[in-house]
Amino acid sequence: MRGILVTLEGIDGSGKTTVLRMISRELIETLGDRRFVFTAEPTSSQAGEVLRRVHLSGRQASETHEICTVRRMEEMLLFMADHANHLAETIIPALREGDVVISDRYADSTAAYQGVTLREIVPDPVAWIRDLYRPWNIVPDRTLLFTLDPALAVKRIRSRTGTDNGVEKFEREAFLREVDCIFRLLGKSEPERFTLIEASRRIEEVAGDALEAIIDLIAQESHSGPER
User: Fold this and answer.
1) Is 221 helix (H, G, I), strand (E, B) or coil?
2) Under 8 Å CB-to-CB from 209, ≥6 apart: which residues?
3) Closest of 80, 16, 10, 14 to residue 43, by C-alpha
4) Terminal CA-CA length for the chain
5) What are the b/e assignments for 218-228, b being 16+ CB within 10 Å?
6) Is the pLDDT confidence value at 61 over 60?
7) Domains in the chain, please, with CATH?
8) pTM of structure
9) At residue 195, what are phi and psi to the nearest 5 degrees?
């Protein structure tokens, strides 16, 4: 039985993490003959932990433009290192065992988010990042892309975190619009891999669509294709 890799992507506030929590038990109960591995990026690897510390500390006001440039490149390389560790330690072994691996974020998130943060540093950063990943990355069998207006995403984030800074809200929404644009372009470039899920609806409806998409994929893949 071949392993299957499903990834969940979308901007912050799209609800994909909540959806994965909601459907994980039902997947196990519905498809008892398959083993599931639920995972996420960043992971708990050394690179992943450094990434969390970097995000918690944020940018220091005293940092020069040159240092900020280096920090952004450092962050992208940390995401890449964490992804490589994720493949080696979790994903590849599970796929070889014939498991269904479902990851909350994957390489597409690095392309989308770092594609924005590196736009003033690297020409065509999205293509550059994808070229770096291409020789060794494993392409998912299906990517569920959770789409919604970034303004709604920011509203959800604010209700969850309790923050209400007008300037911060404007900057975050503008940033997420750019990220969302890249995600949608990635989806258009590989329509056979991406399934778009409208995430502005009730979470139960969104979860239902995600569950159906994954079950349908597993049913199709179980009757076709060689093992990985």
Assistant:
1) helix
2) 197, 198
3) 80
4) 9
5) beebeeeeeee
6) no
7) 4-222 (3.40.50.300)
8) 0.91
9) -120, 120
